[in-house]
Amino acid sequence: MELAYYPGCSLHASSELYDIQNKLVFRELGMELRDIDDWNCCGASSAGKTNDFLAVALPARNLGIVDASGLSDLVIPCSACYSRMLVSQKRLIDDPELKSRINAELAKKVEGRIKILSILEALVPKAHSGEIAEKTKIKLSGLKPACYYGCLLTRFPSDVAVPDDVENPQGMEVVCRALGAEPIEWSYKTDCCGASAVVNDADTSLTLMSKIMKDALARGANCFVATCPMCQMNLDAYQDKAGETFGIKEKLPVYFITELLGVAIGVSPKQMQVDRHFIDAMGLLKELKLI
Amino acid sequence: MQSEVCKFETATSQPFLQEVMERSGQNLLACYQCRRCAAGCPVGDMTGVTPDRLIRMVLLGERDAAINNLLVWQCVACYTCGTRCPNSIQTARITETLKHMSKESLVEPLTPKVAFFHDAFSKSVSHFGRLSELEFMGLYEMKNTASEIKRGRWKAILDEIMNQTKLGLSMIKKRRLHFGSEKIRGLSEVKSLYRKAKGRGI
Fold it and tell me: Considering the entire predicted model, what is its pTM?
């Protein structure tokens, strides 16, 4: 099965390892991810904060490219990109006048009929069907992830269909359980970690992150698992600083969902570049004898 | 916050309210001040102003107060307020709109770093069609440093250099810093979208 795939800017830069993992793991599960041709930045949260037209128009160009590709399903790993594309497509459908204004500038006209999937929406059916459990060679026993969804997987600035429970989503837990891991129950899975503020408003961001860390630790998690590269980067690269500021001594590795999937179905950690985390991510896997 | 006697005049209040409602696409008249938004706002205790207060300011036509408060600039756009609002008012769309209006009326942002950050991001995307992380951070730091120098905040500059150097070094160590940039073939399309966007909302 071939799926259109929008990696987004961060997966071609600081979170390149996530891009590599997605390609490897999806292939093992019988899904080929095809990069959409000549994609551009979706505008992320900055477009919304600087210009309303660009916030719709930048994603629209990508949607037009997928429309022309003949593929019907588009997988987007980054929550910010995912949210922007969903919201843009909704806007284009609701506002034909805006759509034609944008289309006037595009080589590949956007129609707005693509099915946009988060990485979880692509994986959860494979967990429900038993395929993931079947492919699991190494049960992730002893791994107690705090499944972290962040803001943009379930909350949207406009009225789009939400793929999971808004306040207590379960998709990541479903996948983790299929792998034999024991995800914890906790209260901060959809709280904001402040990723977009960590550079420009560190006090706010670190305060938010400290609450997330404290709850995960108090509930007995031994790692985080995330799907969004923005959240992952923030929790991984700034956990030290948040811990230092708020007196939290323990550190938790922050895995991508595909990374855990890969370990369980037998993709080598070296190929998946698990050693590129800021908080050591290899140690816990070795300690639990999973690699 | 110091309280003042509210001077409400329909004639002066209405145009501001109408503009915010149109540009944000939110029906602020539906707000009945239940404060569910305030209860869920993750930055409300830091900003003092919560989404319900902001909506009230706009309803009363308090333009300056609505544009110049910490919530407008420190809102993390987590969309919790709007998701929980019984009347589906998405306040994060209002804080976005007020940022645009602040920029258009050349009011200096209460937290300039936030504005520099998003402007730098947007600028970098206009150069290549994709974000160059290094150029983005460079543009941001240049703007930020210039502003700090103007205000004589030397310690802030030093702290920023220390923090960013530390992050940069650990990124290099983990091979997560990319020096290149990816220019797309369809850059002219992106540039024409930017031209169309100039100076206007939707």
Answer: 0.95
